[in-house]
Amino acid sequence: MKFRTVALIAGLLLAGYSTVALINTNLTSAKAQVVPTKIVNDQVAEYNVAVKAGSKTDRCVQAGFVASAYNQTRDEANYQKWVSIRHQECQAAGLPQ
Predict the structure, then answer these.
(1) Phi and psi dihedrals of 96, rounded to 5?
(2) How many CA atoms lie within 13 A of 27 on its CB side?
(3) I need a labelling partner for 18 at 20 to 30 A (CA). Which of 35, 43, 78, 92 fits?
(4) Phi and psi dihedrals of 14, rounded to 5?
(5) Does residue 13 have a pLDDT over 80?
(6) Residue-wise pLDDT tens digits, 38-95
(7) Cα 74 from Cα 5, distance rounded (Å)
(8) End-to-end distance of the chain based on CA atoms, in angstroms?
(9) 19: which DSSP letter?
């Protein structure tokens, strides 16, 4: 009888530990996704400021920063979109590619 009780308690402890570990892993990966999203959003906001109040060169540089942020998050579609925007902005500023 004691063996069954000990085995049951050990099983519950292990199950509880694995559940807590799984929950913690999910929370950690969710936090990791928030940081790149914030970085991208901050860079897009900076680009929008440059569009409203900056020079053509500022717009070119900021578009490059946004493209770089998307590249770091491995978002290929948005990276390519912003590379194209950077190319257009730099051309408008008369800067070589």
Answers:
(1) -70, 155
(2) 6
(3) 35
(4) -65, -40
(5) no
(6) 999 999 999 999 999 999 999 999 999 999 999 999 999 999 999 999 999 999 999 9
(7) 50
(8) 78
(9) H
With a CB cutoff of 8 Å and minimum separation 6, the contacts of 55 are 93
Question: Count of residues for the chain?
Answer: 97
Identify the pLDDT of residue 11.
52
pTM, entire model: 0.66
Burial of 81 (0-12, 13-18, 19+ CB in 10 A): middle
**b (16+ CB within 10 A) / e for 12-36:** eeeeeeeeeeeeeeeeeeeeeeeee
Q: How many CB atoms lie within 10 A of CB 9?
A: 10
Ordered by start, the domain boundaries in the chain are 2-93
- DSSP, collapsed to helix, strand or coil, labels residue 94 as coil
